[in-house]
Amino acid sequence: MSLFILEVMKWFLLACAIVCLVRMFLGPTTADRLVALNILSSVTLAFLVLRGVVQQRVLYLDVALVYVIFGFLGFLAIARFLKDRLNDEEAE
After folding, report:
1. How far apart are CA 83 and CA 89, in angstroms?
2. Which domain range does residue 41 map to?
């Protein structure tokens, strides 16, 4: 029964990732795309943790931890870039 639940969770995360990809490519504003990218990063993190639980390997959890740290730093860098770009556009 637990393997069935984990399998359903895997397909649910895949569906969420597809929806996030669609929103990221078709989003009307840059902020929508940034939020979709952040959610996609979280879905990938959840998938890595799920994979580690299914295969009973701690290595996936370590990779997930490093992935979330780099994802957060990337999100901050993109947000700062967008803030600076908006400030430059307002100054003109």
Report:
1. 10
2. 2-91
